[in-house]
Design goal:
By secondary structure, the chain is mainly beta. The chain has one domain. The protein has no helices and twelve strands.
């Protein structure tokens, strides 16, 4: 079922539902959707109040004026893109079945690359890179 093409998610942290939350989970009650992040499994799920898996795009409007967007398939995140208030991409994260899998890239507010890391099944793999604001590679670390 195509549930949402666009979902306005306001005041994420103020609407946190702590009554049903396990110690290893963070649960956000966003009105029509319940978003759960399990820290142990590192998995993010999106379920409607009726218990149906969400499909489509979920958009969170951040208090700082930025956006956090999620592509969701069968209730599991497949892509996260966060934006600065100026509209520039702040970070991108690829996921597989709700778990980090693929590239994670962070950017400075001017759009230049800040950090790059790759994941496989939730675990960092390969080389971690960090650049300064001048675009110079200043740090690498093998995972």
């Amino acid at each position: 079922m195509q549930y949402l093409g666009f979902f306005l998610f306001v005041l994420l942290f103020l609407s946190c539902n702590s009554n049903n939350q396990k110690s290893n989970e963070t649960v956000f009650d966003a009105g029509e959707i319940v978003i759960t992040f399990n820290r142990d499994a590192r998995i993010t799920t999106f379920i409607t109040k009726e218990g149906e898996a969400v499909n489509g795009k979920v958009v969170q409007h951040l208090a700082n004026g930025g956006l956090n967007t999620w592509k969701v398939e069968n209730g599991l995140a497949t892509l996260q893109i966060m934006y600065y208030p100026n509209g520039q991409v702040e970070r991108t994260l690829e996921l597989k079945n709700g778990v980090e899998h693929g590239s994670f890239v962070m950017y400075y507010p001017d759009g230049s690359k800040y950090v790059e890391q790759h994941y496989a099944d939730g675990e960092p793999v390969g080389t971690w890179y960090r650049w300064n604001k001048n675009g110079e590679l200043v740090e690498t670390k093998e995972q």
